[in-house]
Amino acid sequence: MAGKGAKDKIKGKAKQATGKITGDDRLKAEGRMDEAKGKAKDAMEDTRETARGAKESVKRRTERS
Fold first, then answer.
1. Nearest Cα to 1, choosing from 51, 42, 34, 38?
2. What are the CA-CA distances from residue 51 to residues 58, 63, 64 (Å)?
3. Contact predicate 6/40, CB 8 Å
4. CB of 3 within 8 A of CB of 32?
5. Distance, CA of 7 to CA of 14 (rounded, Å)
6. pLDDT per residue over 7-52, tens digit each?
7. Which phi-psi region, left, alpha or beta, contains residue 24 (left: φ > 0; alpha: ψ -120 to 50)?
8. In this structure, are residues 38 and 8 in contact, taking their beta carbons and an 8 Å threshold?
């Protein structure tokens, strides 16, 4: 499964490329922001998954005790 931020990252790359071709600095900047937003979403999802894993690990350890 692709990360939740994949759509934003792809959209950002497309905007950056279009802005570069057309010379539109504002569009390039929007693209960088969209890409950063996508990366942030992916990082948050990674953090959530890590926290879930840690929670399950602690739960298993306490159940064994």
1. 42
2. 11, 18, 20
3. no
4. no
5. 11
6. 999 999 999 999 999 999 999 999 999 999 999 999 999 999 999 9
7. beta
8. yes
Long-range pairs, 22-29, Cβ under 8 A, ≥24: none
Indicate the pTM of the whole model: 0.77
State the residue for tokens 């929007």: 30
CA angle 18, 24, 30 (to 5 degrees): 75
φ and ψ of 3, to 5 deg: -65, 160
* Half-sphere exposure at residue 43, Cβ-oriented, CA atoms within 13 angstroms: 7
Task: Report whether 3 contacts 44 (CB < 8 A).
Answer: no
Residue type, 31: G
